[in-house]
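Journal club prep — side note

Before the paper discussion, L.F. wants everyone to see what a predicted structure for a comparable chain looks like in token form. Sequence:
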Amino acid sequence: MLSILAIVLGLIIIAFPMVGLIGAQAIIGVAVLLMGVFLLISGISEVDYSPSRGIATVIIGILILILGLILLFSPNTFAFLAALTIYLAGILLIIAGLVTLIGNKDSGFSFWSGVLGIILGVIYIILGTYARDPMVLGALIGIWLILTGIIRLLDN
């Protein structure tokens, strides 16, 4: 069932890459926003014990809170940051693929999932060099979901 869900979500994201990007923007914006709120509250509670650390944490919390609001409500800022982080995504996919390959040598699904992660990581890095359009990132996420769903179906 999870395989079919991955395939369907992948097809939706490929058909409407902005859906994937808007979803990613909302998730990342809210996550950063919540991190800012946590640091702000944490810094306020630390002021009594360590004033310098508490004030520093409050300042960082405020900055991250502002960044979270910008990410949440500014698609252009998100697109800019997505273009910068496409390289990081590629590196992380390669690392995840290698870890999957090394950690699960016996499972066919894990082998092909690891290979797929490495290949897509290299593609991310190449596309990050030539394409600054974050819609490409949405399409790659869709492709990864479809291929992972198909491999999972075939592995069962």
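L.F.'s comment for the group: The helical segments are 2-15, 17-46, 51-73, 75-103, 108-130, 134-155. Keep this in mind when we get to the figures.
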